[in-house]
Amino acid sequence: MNAMYFLIIPIFVFASAILMYRMTGKLQFLKLDLVQFLYAFVISPVFFIWLKSFIFFLLRSELDLRLTIGEIFTLDTIFSVVFLYIYAFVVIHSLTKTFDLHKKRNPLLDVYEMSEYFHLDYSHLGIYLSGALLLSVGAISNLFFPLELLHVKSVFYSLISMGLLTGVTIFTGLWMYESPEPKFMRWVKLIIGFFFLVFASIYFIFDPTFSTPYILYWAGFSIFTSLVFLSLFAESREEKKKFWQRLPFQLNPIKIKYLINSGRWWIGKKIMGK
């Protein structure tokens, strides 16, 4: 069964790559040539996972090397780093090949303008979304694998505070990015709101205790809480004089007051309705 598995995957990968090559230059996805996109974001990751599995299988089962887990981890890390360098060149090739295909179709194409599309919002949104997804997966997995730690309140609340501060730091970096697209910040806020709702929904489903064994979840929740709070109430600052006014945004008290009054009205309506 293992032999069949390790045989089928590379055959499928190479066969798919050869068959897709005939479609080069015919279709696009997010302004990337579709074939180049599949090479960079589908074929290469699948091949990477297969190679890691194959190497691990050889080291653990087939080769009589009697390696420890630490030695296997070291070899796997070396292979992963080497492959990441190779993958970087694969992505560079896919992008520049896309430029070449566009240039052949339209000799008057402004390649710089097209490269800025990938350099600015395209890559930034990809990084933000991937980072939020990675953070969420790590934090939410804590619900299924609680940490075996003593509940020391000072440490617990310190980490929660660090999470809130981390959210402020992340939002400051997001705000300082000057996108030429007016809707860029709306997309960022949409991503923040989505992941905040995911954390909030999971809380009501699993009801984790507010304690140290679930510190990763609560730290992640605190990061997105500060992010969503600033997304709602932050606005651009016109003057930057004093030290605490050097942040690229300021909180609008009118928005906060409006939200509180709206909440009071909604609660009062529910009580009167009952």
Poorly predicted spans: none
* Inertia-based shape: flat
Q: Count every beta strand, where a strand is a DSSP E run of 2 or more residues.
A: 4
User: Could you state the order of secondary-structure elements as H and E?
Assistant: HEEHHHHHHEEH
Helix content: over 70%
Major sheet characteristics: 2 strands, antiparallel
Strand order of the largest sheet: 1-2
Number of domains: 2
Figure out the total of helices.
8
Structural class: mainly alpha
Query: What is the average per-residue confidence, as pLDDT, rounded to a whole number?
Result: 82
Percent of residues in beta strands: under 5%
Radius of gyration: 25 Å
Write the layout of secondary structure elements.
Blueprint: H1 2-21, E1 28-29, E2 32-33, H2 34-62, H3 69-105, H4 111-141, H5 153-176, H6 184-206, H7 215-233, E3 234-236, E4 249-251, H8 253-273
Antiparallel strand pairs: 1-2, 3-4
Helix pairs in contact: 1-2, 2-3, 4-6, 4-7, 5-7, 6-7
Can you walk through the features of this model?
With 274 residues, the protein is mainly α. The chain folds into 2 domains: 1-109, no CATH class; 110-274, no CATH class. The protein has 8 helices and 4 strands. The strands form 2 sheets. A two-stranded antiparallel ribbon has the order 1-2. A two-stranded antiparallel ribbon has the order 3-4. A hairpin with a 2-residue loop joins strand 1 and strand 2 (32-33). The radius of gyration is 25 Å and the shape is flat. The N and C termini lie far apart (63 Å). The relative contact order is 0.07. The mean pLDDT is 82.
